[in-house]
C-alpha cells in the first residue's frame, strides 16, 4: 500500500483553503455595512438608485489626522486634512486631476485639470481669492481680493458678463431654500428658475396624455453616505459649523459653506403642524425614520429614474397610457437630498398625501419613471410658497402636486 505524506498533502491543500477563505471574505465584503442594514431591515424592498449611487465603494478616514481616502466608481479622492482647515486634497477621476494646496490656512491655492480645461484658484490664505478658469470656448476670472464681496468676469460665446457678489449679511446669490421646504416663502430666483417651477402642478393635470415641459437633471457633485458610526461622531449643528467646515476642509465663505449653513438651518427649523421630520445623516437613520413613522418594515422605496446615459434636454414630456401606479395613500415619507459635506437627506412624514409612479416619454424618446406626490392639505404651508405663486391658488384650497428630482426618495407602505 502506498504511504501518504500528510505534511505534503496539507501543503498542497493550504493554497486551496486560503483561496476558498478569500472568496468567502470577498463575497461578504461586496456588501457595505449600510447595504447589509438595508437588506436586514427591509428584506423585500428594492434599493432605488438615488440611494445606491451614494454608497461608497471603499471609504477610510483617520479621525485623528483628518485624512480621508475614498475609492469609488469615479476615481480616487484623498484629503490630507491634518486636522486643520487648510489641508491638501487630491482627486483623480473621470474629469481629470484636482489639487487643493491649502497651506495650513483657509483659502489656499487650487488647481483643476479636466475635460473642461484648467481652473486655478489663488486664495492667498484668505477667503475670496482670485480664480482663473480656461475651458471650452470660455474664460472665467474671479477677483475676490480677500474680501467677502468678490467680482467675477465671464467671457464666452454669449459675450461678457460681470457678477458682483454681495457682502456678508445679505442673501447669498447661489443658495436658495429648496422648493420642498413648505414653511418658506418663494424667492425671486426660485420664481425664475425653470428647473423648479415646472415640477409643481394641480392634481387635475395628473393623468395619461397630460403634457409637461421640464428637464430632469442629475447632480454630479452629490456627496456619498458616511458609515453611521462615523456620521454620528461628527457634530451636526449650526453652532458647530466652523468645526464642521474645518473638518472637511471646506473653504470659509465659499458657496459650499453657505449651502451647508442653509442645510443646517432647514434641519433645525421647527416642523409644520402635524408633520414629523428629521435630517438623516446616514442611510441607516433614514431607514429607521421611515420604518418608525410608517409603522411597518414592509415598505416600498421609489425614486425618479431617467432611462438615459446622457444629460437630457429641457423638453415636453407626455404621461403615457397606463403609465400611472398608485403608491399607498394618506401617509408617505419623503426624503430630499441636501447639499452638505456628506450625504444628508431631509426626511419628513407627509400626511393627507397621495403618491404615484408616473411613466413619461420625452419628445426625443427618453423614458422617465417619475415619482409624483400630491398634497391634499396645504393649509399649514407658507402662503407665499413657490407652489401657490406659480399655480395661483391659496393654501388649503386644492391639492398641490409635484414631481421629485432624481436624488429624492419616497417611502410608502407596500400595497
UniProtKB/TrEMBL annotation:
Pfam entry (one): BURP
Domain of life, source organism: Eukaryota
BURP domain segment(s): 200-414
InterPro entries, per the entry: BURP, BURP_dom
Protein name as annotated: BURP domain-containing protein 3
Organism: Carex littledalei
